[in-house]
Amino acid sequence: MGKLFAHFYTVECQLFKYVNQYFSQRHLNLFFRSITHLGGARLTIATILLIILFTSDAVRLTAVASAIALAISHIPVMIAKKLFPRKRPYLALPQINVTNNPLRDHSFPSGHTTAIFSVIIPFILFYPTLTIVLLPVAFAVGISRIYLGLHYPSDVMAGCLLGSLTGTLSYVFVAANFPLNFL
Q1: What is the mean predicted confidence (pLDDT) over 88-116?
Q2: 9 closest CA partner among 150, 152, 131, 114
Q3: Are 71 and 131 a contacting pair, CB within 8 Å?
Q4: For 22, 28, 145, 175, which has the most beta carbons within 10 A of its beta carbon?
């Protein structure tokens, strides 16, 4: 079992370094440094609050489901960061490109990725056509966390799964308890 984990970590580090090696590309740098903020606390909370305040009916309830998912998803994120105190890649690997003032808490799972997926999944479930826009944005946020030297690919995958699960569960909960032509 130890050999399997060692092999997985080796492959993960190679994938991480492959993405991170493009850090000096001006256009990619601008893109990833910008899009990463879509998974940050300020922007996710502000966006959801604006949607709740300025929409009505089913769209508002969908935003409420997103808000619930965002809030709930960060409980397991904080627990996982305590249970699995994984160093961030720029602290564990040599010669890694990283942003200025990088995060110092633990790496697993990616909070930004968790946040963006927890917010978008209720909207994708309510209005599937949005998938073509929202899913690439969410994946770009996840990739940005690797590109910026802050997370391993498995941190991002865990965040994707955790955010998707909480987004789905909160959507189902809100749809079942507040049926307003919701589904």
Answers
A1: 90
A2: 152
A3: no
A4: 145
Interaxial angle between packed helices 111-126 and 131-147, expressed in degrees from 0 to 180 and rounded to the nearest 10: 170
Q: pTM surpassing 0.85?
A: yes
Report yes or no: 150 and 88 within 8 Å, Cβ to Cβ: yes
Structure tokens at 170: 């909160």
Q: How many CA atoms lie within 13 A of 161 on its CB side?
A: 9
Tell me what pLDDT residue 24 has: 85
Q: Confirm if 163 and 112 have CB atoms less than 8 A apart.
A: no
Q: How many residues does the chain have?
A: 183
What tokens were used for 42?
A: 């300020």
Q: Of 126, 122, 150, 149, which is closest to residue 138 (Cα–Cα)?
A: 122
- Given this model, what pLDDT does residue 78 score? 94
pLDDT in tens, 143-161: 999 999 999 999 999 999 9
CB atoms within 10 A of CB 168: 18
Cβ proximity of 153 and 146 under 8 Å: yes
Nearest to 104 by CA among 149, 146, 141: 149
